[in-house]
Amino acid sequence: MPVMLKKILTYFLAAFATFWLNAQDKDAVTFEIKLSKEKLGINERLRVDFTMNKDGDNFMPPDFEGFRVLMGPSQSISSSWINGVRSYSKTYSYTLAPTARGQFNIQQASIVIDGNTYKSLSKKVEVTAAVDKPSDQMTVDDVADESLHLVAEVSKTSPYLNEALSVVYKLYVAPSISVSNYQPLDNPKYNNFWSQDIPVRRLSAENGTYKGKPYRYVVLKRVVLYPQKSGQLEIEPLSLDVTVDVPTNKRDFFGGRIYSQTNKTVSAGRRTINVKALPEKGKPVNFSGAVGSYGFSVTTSKTALNASESLQAKVEVSGKGNLKLFQLPEPNLPGSLEVYDPEFSEDVRTTLSGSQGKVSNNYTIVPTFKGKYPIPSISFTYFDPNSETYKTLSSEEIVIDVKEGPVNSASANAPNLNGAKQAVTTGNQFNFLKLQPNLSPTATNVFFGSTCFYLWLFLPLLLIPVAILIGKKREAIASDVAGNKIKRANRLARKYLSKARKELGHKDAFYVALEKALHNYLKAKLKIETSEFSKDKIAHLLKEKNVDDVTIHGFIALLKNCEMARYSPFSEVQMQQDYDKASEVISQLDKQL
Known about the structure:
This is Protein BatD. By secondary structure, the protein is an alpha+beta fold. Helix content is 26%, strand content 38%.
C-alpha cells in the first residue's frame, strides 16, 4: 500500500472517530441542580434551578427541608439551531426562604427522560444570621414591604391639657417602586381629643429620608388635636390599602422592565401621648380653660349718646391657642342699661401649629335714662404653656355718657354725692286759660244714604263667607299635625344647611359647612358641644334620646363622608346626595327629639 494512501486512510478514520464521539456527547442526557448561592443570610432568598437538555416527564422536586417555597415551580424552555445542530434546555425554578439558621441539604430531584429515571446531585447550603443587604431575589410582596412605610409624625408627645399638637400622616415610597392607588381602610378615632382636620389640597411627592435612606413621600392627612383629658392617651392608627407596582428582573420585547402589581396594607401604628394636667398652684378663680398666648380687649362703638340710642360693646380675645374651647368673660353692666344677648363671632384659622385668630362677643346696649354709667374692668385669665404660668389680663373701665333723655326717678331722688346743684325749672309756671272759645262752623257732608254708607253697611255681610272659608282652611292646616311637623322640620333643616347649600360644587367648603351644620343642630337641640365628641359617643347619645337606628346610622354616615371628603375625590352628584340626605336626617331627628 502506497504511503500516501495510508495517510489518507488514517485521517479518515480519525475524523470518523471524532464525529462519532461528538454525536455520542450530543445524545447524552444531563440533569443537574444550580444554586444562586451556597451561603446566605436568614433574611435572604435562594433560587434553585433544575436544568435538563432533553424534555422529560414526572418531575419530582425535593422536600426543601429548612426552607419555605415562595415561588415555583416556574418553567422556562430554550431551543435553538446553530450550524444545523439543535440545542435544547428546560429548567424548573424555585424561590426559597430559609426558616432557620444552620447547614441544610437540597436533596435530589428526579425526572423520567426517554423511559429512564435521572436524579440530580444534592447540594449543601449554609444559612447564617440576617445580613444588612439581603439579596434581590425576593418576591413582589417582600419588596413592597421593605419599600413602603406609613408614618404618623407627632409634633408633641407631652403637651399640657388643651395645648395644641399636630399629627401629619406621610406615606414613604422607595424610588424603586411606584404607587398607583390607595384607599383608606380605617380612619383613626381621636377619643378624648378635640380635633380639627387641615385639608390637603393637592397630593405632591417630595424627596426625603426614612431611617437614613432616600425616599419619596407624600402627605396624606394633617390634623390638629387638643387633648381634653390628662394622662396617657392613645391615637389610633390610620390604615391604607395601597396598590404597588414593583419592578421585576424580566423585560419586554423592547427591553423595558416588566412591573408586577400587588396590594399591601400599611398602618401608621398607635401613638401614645402623655398629657400633663394644668398646675393647681396659682390657678385663678376665674380661669375658664384658655391655654395659649392671648391678648384681651373691651371696646365700645361710642361713649356719648342719647337715651334710646344703641351702642355696641365688644369683648374680644385674640392670639394663638384653643380659641374655640373656652368661654369669654361677661361684662357686669349697670341695671339702667338694657343689654341684649351677645352675638358671637370668630375669625379663626387652623395651621399645624394650632388655631390662631380672634373670638368675640358683641353686646347691643340701649340706655334708658340720662346719666353716666361705668362699664367696670373685666379680667381674662389663661395658661401660657411656654412659661408654664397663669396670666391675667384686665380691661380699662369705660364710662358711657347719656346726654339726653328722661331722668331716672330713683337717681333723681337719691342724694347728690358729687355736691352738684339740682336743676331748677325757670319761666312761667302757670298760664291763663281762655273761657270763651272762638269757634267757626265748618262745611258738613251728609254721610247717611251715601255710597260709602251702603258700602260699609253691606261689606261685613260680604266678608262672612270669606271668613268662613279662611276658618275652615286654618282648621284643616291645624288638624294636620304630621304635615305641620314636617314643615317645621324642613324649615329647620333649611336654616342649618343654608351655608352648605351655597357651597354646593366646592367640595372642601361644602363638607366643612355640612359638618358644622350637623354639629350646630345637635348643639341647639341638646345644649352640648357635640364637636368635642367622637362619632361613637354621638351615636350613644342619640340612642339615649330614643332616636331610631336608621336615623342614627344616616347621621353618622354623613359625618364620615365629611371626614372622607378631605382627602378623597367627591363628585357634585355625591355632594347633592349628601345634602338631600342631611336635610332628611335633620327632619327625622327633629321629629324624634
